[in-house]
Amino acid sequence: RVHGGINQSLCLSSSVTWMSLLSRFPLLSNCFLASGLATSGDLLCQLLEKQERFDFKRTLRFSTLGMFSSGPLFYFWYSKALPRIMQRYTSSSVVKTTARKVLIDQFVFSPVALAWFFTAMGTLEGKDTATIKAKIKQDYVVTYMADCGVWMPVQFLNFRYVPISYQPAVVNGVCVGWNAFLSYMNSRSVLPTPPSPKHHTLASM
Prior knowledge:
Blueprint: H1 2-24, H2 26-49, H3 56-86, H4 94-124, H5 129-161, H6 167-187
Helix pairs in contact: 1-2, 2-3, 2-6, 3-4, 3-6, 4-5, 5-6
């Protein structure tokens, strides 16, 4: 019980410290959080894939993207841009306002963020433009459908019950599992495009 009490006290102290940092340095805190969770998600994915050895360069790319892209992007969208947009669409009904916020997030922000993810990861991997476009064409729709299934209910609860300053942290928290899925989708090879069928004319016959 003594050890349990100590552990509980340490967890509470860490939580208070993190909330303090999040309040004082929201952008920087969210960047570090996004980087750490991106790293965790990729490591989890590689563990589930049961690879013979970890691809640490792949993990480093995810970590870098979290620090310099996802973290700032989530912070400015959820803390700055989305609240400003919602000033025009606020309803007297809390449920209606939350639903509108989810729809704007899902159908305005998510499609762009997902396309940017595949583009940025492809760039970090040194892929050319044609390969990145082929990757997006192959996996974007499937990934976006999964995005809708996961994030719409999560964001409804997030927008409904979580203060604005902590909403990016909630998004990043769910991103552990989501990043594992994105890592899997990103690691899939681009299938070769089948050759287009030849058109036979009467003359050739």
